[in-house]
Amino acid sequence: MNDIEQFVNKFGLTPFWSVVIILLIVCIWQYDKVRVIVTDIYCIVAKTIGWFKREATKRKLEEICNKGLTSISQEISELNLPNLKINWIAKGSQDITLKDKEVIVFLKFNTDNTQNIINTTSAYVKKTLLPIPKTYMSPQVRDAIDYTVIRKCLLEIPEYRLAVNDFIKNSQDICIENQAIIDKVCNIDDAGLMSRILFREYFEWGNRIAGRNIDNKYQKEASDFLDFLYDITARGYDDNTRLQYISENIKVGVLLVAKLDTFSAQGETPYVRRIKEGFAKGIRTFYLLARNEKLDIVEDVYGKLIQTGNYNLLNGPKAYKDAQGRENICYCIEINSEGNMAQTFNRLSDAMEKNTTLEAVVHSIYADKILCQINDVKIIIPHNKITDVPDLKLYYYFQVGMSIEFIPEEYDKHGNVLGSLLQTNSNPQRMMDNKFCVGNEVEAIVEQALDDCLFLRIKDSDIKGVALRKDITYSHYIFLHQHFPVGSEYLFRIIEIDYISNRLHLQLANLCDPWENLKYSEGQKLICTVYQKKENCVITEIEEGVKAILPFTEITWFTPESSQIKKLKNNVTFECRIKSINQDRRLVILTMKSAESPYLNYYKRIEENEYIVDAKVIASDAKGLVCLADEKYRIFIPQSETHIGANKYKCKIKDQIKVYIKDISNDKRSFIGSLKPFIKHPMQWFADNYAPGIALSNLTINTINEKSVLFNILRNNKLYCLGLLPIGEITNLCHIESIEQIYKDGIKFPLIITEIDMERCIVKLSLKKLLANNKDKVKSLDYYTRYSAHIIGKRDNDSIIIVDKIWIEGILIESKNSKIGDKVSVRAISLGEIPEFSGD
Predict the structure, then answer these.
(1) What is the pLDDT of residue 49?
(2) Domain residue limits, the chain
(3) Are β-strands 587-591 and 695-696 bridged in parallel, bridged antiparallel, or unpaired?
(4) Is 776 exposed, middle or buried (0-12, 13-18, 19+ CB in 10 A)?
(5) Res 1: pLDDT
């Protein structure tokens, strides 16, 4: 309130004017609601004061009639229907006039409000709905449209339902005279297409012919379009109904959405084809209709069409229900004049008019025609439009994917373009006199030699030809001007005819692939010339078209020196031999190294030193060390060979160390070394003091899982190494599923050493060997003493146990309720090879 008071004081407004301004703002913001309230006030006052009755009736009529016309205005905004105003007149004839986007109906006051509504609605519809188109329609069509729309508007006024009945009674003469046409318009309206298609197209039609003299042909055009739309709404499920209407001033296409399985199989292709057919006939506007379960399909079709950029949406379609309660939708789209399809058809139409050539790509070749495409528009060129020679084989002269010239002549009924090659460079007859066709051999003279092709002239003619490098030689390095001097003649084969340039594409007739019958073998000595030098190799050819490389690593068995690499320059010859031939890669690998690796001789020499050499560390990374022996023999020491467990050999770059040579690498260019012989083994003390067969006790668990247990082995109360007990080393009397259950209470069984694995730095342990060693202790048992035992497994209804302290295994009979890992008290009942016990 303070803000309002400050605003009022700022502009010096009195309280009266402040209230007036606020009321004006409310009236502008909520105009419709204020108007209804004022009308209701008028009606209330009119019942008590007769002076207000006429004004109240006028306001009520305006509100009711505008409400009835709202639905049509919303369905087709292009009609731009004006607001309705009523003026009462006492004398003269009723009339209607337009003023400032409003329609003023001059009406004689009638005490019967129903008749006032009928008169107002009738006058409004007849004057404002499609005023220009109705001028050119036949009286029958005009009356049928007016009748249907007036009836539709009156039905939108539920509080005056009797108005519809009175209107129908008063219009009996019109109904009788125009029954058939009225039925058609009503049927179109029941399908929801009266305003969405019929009125929209009549509106556009009226704009096209506005100002012309009235003629019967326009009446026929309007009637025929009405019949066309009626046939669509009345069609049966499988009726072959016309879906394109083409006249002088109305051109419309209707697309009905197919079933889901049809759309899944063919997608939007059929719709695009029908649109192109219609577009070729001059149709620019198309309606996409769908009903019920096909609404989702039409949205997909519309989405894919609009994404091409070839179409514009003219309406904002919403789903609606027809007279039978079925859900429908109607998309109105037009061809985008800036899209590829419209531009392509414009180019084609322009070329037809001017008889000029266009370029297209061959898509398919048949015996009687060629199919081409320009931006997905199909071009059909019949055989008789290609040549006058009936026996000419088209596939001799044309190939899929090649470009040709053609002259578009006309559109066929499917929207395809019919073209001709007769007056173009693509006409095969321009070369027919010399009998040139694909596959023929011709003699040609070299006129120019470039790095990538030869330009030729066919001998004894003025026909030009071109031969690409790949069609002359398999070599990438020879100079064409040296091998094919200007003026020399060669025999070529025709591989393609370029009709655009009126030129032959040729291939050397005796061109042979040298790799098909290669006459070289591994180890063969050669003298080669460097053609190209790369970062890590030089490239040459051992024969024209047989590529070979000499990697720098193949210059010597050792690391090549920079001076050796510098000597290999372009055009320098070098001696080598073939190391390998790769047919799949069409590549020969060369080498300059001696046949036998010097590493083999060196390996034999160090045998007397037990394969131990002095070496210098030159590199180190995560993979291992690289050393040199005698300053040239390369030794690689893998990371795994530089430590034993936690004990690692310590060295740095440039250190002189001793290395044990384990092996020679596969390529015979380095040794595989090891430092382990010079590293003190972390388990050496254990190996010196323990041996397989010795029992270890009081071991604590390090980690445990279902299949094994790792135990801590201590020295001086510190962890020294680990012992491994696999699940298979528990017992032979039953299958153990999980070790975790056995050791759940931390039982400490003594364990026998089975192996000291120095490589993996682990001690392998066994429980079942301990139990096997203690079999003789069964004799020390009696039948009276109770013994403590642990259950380690199950066998049928019995349990397998280990007796504490004595460390022998046995069977606890009838103990199916016992669990693995439980501690039990037992008594011996049988002292055989495998003792049996009872819990009783």
Answers:
(1) 47
(2) 49-198, 243-336, 356-428, 441-508, 514-591, 598-678, 684-772, 781-838
(3) unpaired
(4) exposed
(5) 47
**Burial label, 695 (beta-carbon count in 10 A; 0-12, 13-18, 19+):** middle
The residue-averaged pLDDT of 203-207 equals 90
Residues 6+ apart with CB under 8 A from 522: 578, 579, 580, 581
Q: Structure tokens of 405?
A: 């010239």
Identical fold for domains 243-336 and 781-838, yes or no, is no
**Hey, what CATH topology would domain 781-838 get?**
OB fold (Dihydrolipoamide Acetyltransferase, E2P) (2.40.50)
Class of domain 356-428: mainly beta
Q: How many CA atoms lie within 13 A of 63 on its CB side?
A: 21
pLDDT of residue 6: 57
pLDDT above 70: residue 507: yes
- DSSP secondary structure of 503-542: EEEEEETT---GGGG----TT-EEEEE--EE-SSEEEEEE
The CATH class for the domain spanning 514-591 reads mainly beta
Q: What is the dihedral of CA 394, 396, 402, 407, to 10 degrees?
A: -40
Residue 227, pLDDT above cutoff 90: yes
**Residue 783 CB coordination number (10 Å):** 9
CB atoms within 10 A of CB 831: 16
Residue 269 to residue 756: CA distance in whole angstroms:
76
Q: Which fold has domain 441-508?
A: OB fold (Dihydrolipoamide Acetyltransferase, E2P) (2.40.50)
**What number of H helices and E strands is found in the chain?**
23, 43
CATH topology of domain 598-678: OB fold (Dihydrolipoamide Acetyltransferase, E2P) (2.40.50)
Complete DSSP assignment for 307-365: HTTSEEE-S----EE-TTS-EEEEEEEEE-TTSHHHHHHHHHHHHHHHT--EEEEEEEE
Residue 644 has a pLDDT of 86
Q: Is the pTM of this model over 0.85?
A: no
Q: Which two tokens stand for residue 177?
A: 């005279």
Q: Quick one: average pLDDT of 652-665?
A: 92
- pLDDT band per the 50, 70, 90 thresholds, residue 48: very low
CB 725 within 8 A of CB 708: yes
**Are 679 and 754 spatial neighbours (Cβ–Cβ below 8 Å)?**
no
Residue type, 806: I
CB 767 within 8 A of CB 749: yes
Tell me yes or no: is domain 684-772 CATH 2.60.200.20: no
**Which CATH entry fits the domain spanning 243-336: 3.40.190.10, 3.40.1180.10, 3.30.110.20, 3.40.50.2000?**
3.30.110.20
Lowest mean pLDDT among 166-170, 455-459, 517-521: 166-170
% residues pLDDT > 90 (the chain):
36
Say if CB 264 and CB 228 are below 8 A apart: no
